[in-house]
Design a protein that fits this description.
The structure holds three protein chains of three kinds. Chain A has helices spanning 47-54, 86-89, 96-101, 105-108, 110-116, 118-123, 139-152, 169-186, 197-203, 233-236, 238-256, and strands at residues 2-13, 21-32, 36-40, 62-67, 70-71, 79-82, 157-161, 189-194, 206-210, 217-222. Chain A is of the alpha/beta class. Chain A folds into two domains: 1-78 and 169-257, 3-Layer(aba) Sandwich (Rossmann fold), CATH 3.40.50.300; 91-154. In chain A, the strands form two sheets. In chain A, strands 6-7-8-3-9-10 form a six-stranded mixed β-sheet, sandwiched between helices. In chain A, strands 2-1-4-5 form a four-stranded antiparallel β-sheet, covered by helices on one side. By secondary structure, chain B is an all-alpha fold. Chain B is 84% helix and 0% strand. Chain C folds into two domains: 2-108 and 218-319, 3-Layer(aba) Sandwich (D-Maltodextrin-Binding Protein, domain 2), CATH 3.40.190.10; 116-214, 3-Layer(aba) Sandwich (D-Maltodextrin-Binding Protein, domain 2). In chain C, helix 7 (145-156) links the parallel strand 6 (136-139) and strand 7 (165-168). Chain C is built from 15 helices and ten strands. In chain C, helix 8 runs parallel beside helix 9 (192-200). Chain C has helices spanning 2-14, 41-48, 51-54, 70-75, 86-94, 129-132, 145-156, 171-179, 192-200, 210-214, 227-232, 234-253, 258-268, 272-275, 289-301, and strands spanning 28-34, 57-63, 81-85, 99-107, 116-121, 136-139, 165-168, 185-189, 204-208, 219-226. Classes of the chains: A alpha/beta, B mainly alpha, C alpha/beta. The B-C interface holds B 28-30, 106, 109-110, 113-114, 193-197, 202, 205-212, 215 and C 33, 35-37, 61-65, 68-69, 72-73, 76, 78, 170-173, 175-176, 179, 191-192, 195, 198-200, 268-271, 274.
């Protein structure tokens, strides 16, 4: 079943004096319920714009976005956006627990929201860090807090905007495993935007490759690698190497062109 | 407490004051020695007159600070978050801002009289602009991501303003209040000098007319100390209210 | 609350002469603008001695530095009564403001010492108005009674008042400005005369009495109210006048006695020792057409002429002798 659908979505921005600049041109894609979709594209190709429109944070100029069959005009309760820059989206005046509780306290009240924060914190391996402040934690741990906060809202879908790009390589592998683990345990639907070819292959069921601006869909590939995916073994799998070769060639050619 | 070089400088200047009057370097009855000034100050403190006047002045200052500060924060929030309000009232505010407060006192006297409403309004006007400017800048500097974060969790605009934007802008707002605090004390005293029998300002005028220089300087010394204490108190409050800001800044550095 | 007020009002209307009754009930508050100077001694005496309370009035004094907000505040309705110097009052009258005199306040005595004195630096050689030509003369304000009497003194002692440069210096700063050479002469009002001679006596000397030498017994300051207020609340102002004039009697009966100086020291904060050497004005109850005519004539002579209404029409019944 299609959980998220983008139908001929176009985005234009007004320019001073000239015709509007079209940054995205009739992009159509869909994410199946329970699917892990990676959207791959070079930097600056409008991946984040696409994701923000899917999340209801940015209205498309034309075209439609639907989640669970309903049109999206505002952020839908089913999907939560996970930001690339954890340092900007975490609230530095709140403790880790209160940051996680922030996702739900407007609905549950402060006390119940704080109690409910323990479970997602445990899920991301931050048990016992509830009373720390974000700025006392490493970058990887901060991104775990952001993920825990997203999970606290109990969404059916996560929209992840290059969530591992701001941490070091080892931490990134760690967080990728964490997200895969949560995805399978919680039976989530995920749409993840990245410029990292290996990350896309490692995580996704299906990869959509975008072109440069104005952004269109260039290609759609089924990953077809077995799960569970071990972070080391998967990277040595012939299918992984084949896909990596293909995708890097595409991105580099496009980059050069 | 360690005596810093700044403390030594102040002690040195005070000693110079005492000597200049005692040794006749400045030969005027309107330049009393520090010891005379402190004695006069102590005497009027002991009678309870000055403490009562100080309380009155602080009350007027506090009321003006609260009213002007609240208006400044709310206007700043409105200007930053509701573009229409900035378009409607922005020009009015920019036109009013450069007018020196003493220049608006006569019309204020006409509409509000000579009592507390006028004096508090004068203080509130003084406080309003620095708080407004800083609130506006603080709100505009709030990370768009943190506001979008609130939206993705379905948090409404009022709650976003109160729980994301306001705390994030608080360091800037408090910096505005610190500037306003120093101005507020000065303006309170000036307003009290215009008319009425209350407060430190009126005492200053009375002593000037009575030719009592020690009492006059006593109050000036008192105002300096009061201003210093208020600022120190405010900084302490600030360190409590936005402890995270100081701490986060240190960790990041 | 409203019942008591209404009762008090009814009592006030029914028995205007049963003054002591008011002492028990609600008092009518009257805000009076004053300057912290010797001239307002009778007002403070009447407050302290309970003369106003006996007339059912509570006086709320508001001190304004130099009287700057007094008359404008009267027009704006901030004050019921304002103490001011006669020149400022008459200039307001000339501009069409409906001020009415409700009582005299102070005038010069017939011979020195009087409440204004002209001081110069010792050894400056300045003796007369002629010597002041081209020099800087300090007055607390331009176009008030101090300035007017000063100009009259310059002319009387052979000088051309137009050639004297008037500099505005507040009384508290005059002694330093004169001793320091920023001005060449200054017209002081008491108690600043006494203060200046007490503290700068080695360097300053008095060369003239601008009031008693140019207009012996001439008027200085009065209490005024607005004409429409007087028309509507004549009874209240009758009571005000009666109480104030009891204060005048109180003060005049104690001329030269410690009790008077203690009263003045209490409201003005001027040290008692200095008041011993201070010249006091005469405290009249009335305002006369003759003295107003004299002022208008003098003002006209020194460039403050214009269309002034008949003096008699400006004097409310409480100020008629």
């Amino acid at each position: 079943m299609r959980f998220l659908e983008l139908d001929e979505v176009t985005k234009e921005y007004p320019t001073r004096g000239g015709p509007p600049a079209r940054v995205m041109d009739r992009v159509s894609l869909s994410v199946q319920e329970g699917e892990f979709l990676a959207v791959l594209g070079p930097s600056g190709c409008g991946k984040s714009t696409l994701l923000q429109m899917a999340a209801g944070l940015l209205p498309p100029t034309s075209g439609a976005v639907r989640i669970a069959g309903r049109p999206v005009n505002a952020p839908p309760p089913e999907a939560v956006y996970v930001f690339q820059q954890y340092s900007r989206s975490l609230l530095p005046w709140r403790s880790v627990r209160d940051n996680v509780a922030f996702a739900t306290e407007h609905r549950l009240g402060r006390r119940r929201a704080r109690e409910a924060a323990d479970e997602p914190l445990k899920l991301v391996g931050l048990e016992g860090f509830g009373d720390h402040f974000p700025w006392q934690l490493s970058g990887g741990m901060q991104q775990r807090v952001a993920i825990a906060r997203a999970l606290a809202a109990e969404p059916a879908m996560l929209l992840m905007d290059e969530p591992f790009s701001a941490v070091d390589a080892l931490t990134r592998l760690d967080l990728q495993s964490l997200v895969l683990d949560i995805w399978s345990r919680r039976r989530l639907t995920v749409m993840l935007v990245t410029h990292d070819v290996e990350e896309a292959i490692q995580l996704a069921d299906r990869i959509i490759v975008l072109t440069n601006r104005p952004t269109t869909v260039a290609e759609e590939i089924a990953v077809a690698l077995p799960r569970p995916r071990d972070p080391i073994a998967t990277r040595e799998h012939p299918r992984f190497l084949e896909l990596r070769h293909h995708l890097l060639e595409r991105l580099l050619a496009r980059h050069a062109g | 407490m360690r005596i810093t070089s700044g403390t030594w400088l102040i002690l040195g200047l005070l000693a110079l004051w005492e000597a200049s009057a005692r040794l006749g370097w400045v030969d005027s009855p309107n330049w009393p020695a520090l010891s005379q000034v402190l004695a006069a100050l102590a005497a009027d403190m002991a009678t309870g007159e000055l403490p009562a006047r100080i309380c009155g002045s602080l009350w007027r200052m506090g009321a003006g600070l609260a009213a002007g500060g609240l208006a400044g924060v709310l206007t700043g929030l409105a200007f930053a978050l509701i573009p229409l309000t900035a378009r409607l009232f922005g020009v009015v505010v920019e036109l009013l801002r450069p007018i020196p407060v003493p220049a608006v006192i006569p019309p204020l006297v006409l509409f509000l009289g000579l009592d507390d409403p006028m004096k508090i309004t004068v203080v509130a006007l003084t406080v309003f602009f620095p708080v407004l400017t800083n609130t506006l800048q603080g709100v505009q500097a709030v990370e768009p991501d943190s506001i979008a974060m609130g939206r993705t969790f379905g948090i409404g605009p009022l709650r976003r303003a109160g729980f994301i934007i306001l705390p994030a802008a608080l360091p800037a707002i408090l910096a505005g209040f610190r500037v306003a605090l120093a101005l507020a004390l000065v303006v309170t005293v000036v307003a009290e000098m215009i008319a009425g029998e209350q407060g430190i300002g009126s005492y200053l005028v009375l002593m000037q007319f009575a030719g009592r220089a020690p009492e006059m300087y006593g109050v000036i010394v008192l105002l300096a100390a009061l201003g210093y204490a208020l600022n120190r108190g405010f900084v302490a409050l600030e360190r409590r209210l936005i402890a995270w800001w100081y701490a986060a800044g240190r960790e990041a550095a | 609350m409203s019942l008591t007020r209404r009762t008090a009002l009814a009592a006030a209307l029914a028995t205007p002469l049963a003054a002591p009754a008011f002492a028990q009930g609600a008092l009518t508050r009257m805000r009076v603008s004053v300057i912290p100077v010797l001239d307002v001694a009778p007002l403070h005496a009447a407050i302290r001695e309970g003369f106003f309370a006996a007339e059912g009035i509570e006086i709320d004094t508001s001190t304004t530095a130099g009287g700057a907000t007094g008359l404008p505040g009267l027009v704006a309705g901030q004050f019921r009564v304002v103490f001011s110097n006669v020149v400022s009052i008459m200039l307001g009258v000339r501009e069409g403001l409906d001020f009415r005199f409700v009582s005299g306040a102070s005038r010069a005595k017939d011979s020195p010492p009087d409440i204004l004195a002209l001081l110069v630096r010792k050894g400056s050689g300045i003796r007369t108005g002629r010597d002041l030509e081209g020099k800087r003369l300090a007055s607390n304000t331009r176009n008030n009674i101090v300035w007017l009497r000063g100009m009259a003194w310059v002319e009387k002692t052979g000088g051309d008042w137009r050639r004297v440069n008037t500099v505005e210096v507040p009384f508290p700063q005059m002694a330093d400005a004169l001793a320091g050479g920023q001005v060449d002469a200054a017209i002081f009002s008491e108690p600043f005369v006494a203060a200046a001679l007490e503290t700068h006596g080695d360097r300053l000397e008095r060369i003239g009495w601008p009031m008693s030498e140019t207009a012996p017994g001439g008027t200085n300051a009065q209490y005024v109210a607005m004409a429409d207020d007087l028309a509507r609340n004549g009874d209240l102002f009758d009571r005000f006048g009666r109480a104030l004039h009891k204060g005048v009697d109180w003060v005049n009966e104690r001329q030269g006695q410690p009790a008077l100086l203690e009263l003045i020291s209490a409201f003005s904060r001027v040290p008692l020792a200095r008041l011993q050497n201070t010249a006091l004005p005469a405290y009249p109850k009335a305002v006369t057409s003759a003295e107003l005519d004299e002022i208008v004539a003098t003002m006209t002579r020194y460039g403050l002429g214009g269309r002034y209404p008949a003096s008699a029409s400006l004097i409310f019944r409480t100020a008629r002798g």
